[in-house]
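Hey, quick one: can you model this chain's 3D structure?
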Amino acid sequence: MHRRQHRRRGSGRLPAHRRRHGPRARRVDELQQLLGEGPTLDALRSDSLVHSYDLALDGRWSRWSAEASRDLGVRSLLGLRLRTQRDEVGVLTLYSAAVGGFGHEERESAQVLATHGSVALAAAHDVERMLDAMTRRTRIGAAMGIVMERFDLEEDVAFEVLRRLSQEQNRKLVDIADELVREREVEGLGPPRRD
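Sure thing. Here's the predicted structure for all 195 residues.
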């Protein structure tokens, strides 16, 4: 059995792949992307389990099923959508070389696994967001330090200077901060104060 987990990246595209087992699973998924049809794409669009007892006889993805079963030896599959409360989705796809490789018990176990995968996906996204927020906060703090030192300002005034530049230039505050930290100057800031 081969397993693939997918995370959605933009609408209408096959998601980025998280490789689990073997090059065959990767080739099966690449074929879906090339042909624009297959169970992973259907699982992304639907809210139900996608199951094929025998791909050689399954007409839902005629071109993909024919090539996957004939050339790659995939005969049955399960595709389960992964969901979180924020509707970040992915797909867990299980492939088997046997016709009828997924009976009732396997389908139930796969649904439990998909639920656990959804929880893990949500936790990973939360960690990623927290790391991004900490990085942005650190960059803004560093830029505030530059402004405070350069112009002998208090912290709240330095933040206000950066916020004003952000609004005037219609740029994100973190982008202004990044430029100031990287280049040691930013348009609109002016020269350092001289005593």
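One thing worth noting: The chain has a mean pLDDT of 86.
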